[in-house]
Design goal:
- By secondary structure, the protein is mainly alpha-helical.
- The chain has a domain at about 35-90: Arc Repressor Mutant, subunit A (Orthogonal Bundle), CATH 1.10.10.
- The chain is about 45% helix and about 10% strand.
- It has helices at about 35-45, 50-60, 65-85; strands at about 20, 30-35, 85-90.
- The protein is elongated, with a radius of gyration of 14 Å.
- It comes from Candidatus Roizmanbacteria bacterium RIFOXYA1_FULL_41_12.
- InterPro entries: UPF0251.
- Pfam families: DUF134.
Length: about 90
C-alpha cells in the first residue's frame, strides 16, 4: 500500500485549458493530460528559474518528488509534440 499524497502548494492558474496542433479539430486529436502539480513544477523551474530544491520547498514537497513531477511533465509534453496530440491542462 502506498503512502497518501501530501497536498501540494499550487499557485499558478493558467488562462487556457488546451494546446493543440494548428489546423486539426480538437475532436480528431488524442490528448495528453497535464496535471496541476506538473504545470506548477514547469512554471517554477522554467519560467521562474528556481532550482529544483527552491521549487520543491515552495511546493512543500521533497526534491526527489519534485524531480519526478517535472520529469513526468517533460515526458507528457514531448510525447504530445512528437505525436501531434493535444495537451489538456487539468484544473
Amino acid at each position: 500500500m502506498s503512502r497518501p499524497k501530501k497536498p501540494r502548494q499550487l499557485f499558478f492558474q493558467p488562462g487556457v485549458r488546451y494546446f493543440k496542433p494548428q489546423g486539426v479539430p480538437l475532436r480528431q486529436l488524442s490528448e495528453v493530460v497535464l496535471m496541476p502539480d506538473e504545470l506548477e513544477a514547469l512554471k517554477l523551474h522554467e519560467q521562474d528559474r528556481l532550482s529544483q530544491i527552491e521549487a520543491a520547498t515552495k511546493m512543500q514537497i521533497s526534491q526527489p518528488t519534485f524531480a519526478r513531477i517535472l520529469g513526468s511533465a517533460y515526458q507528457k509534453i514531448s510525447l504530445a509534440i512528437l505525436n501531434g496530440q493535444a495537451i489538456k491542462l487539468q484544473q
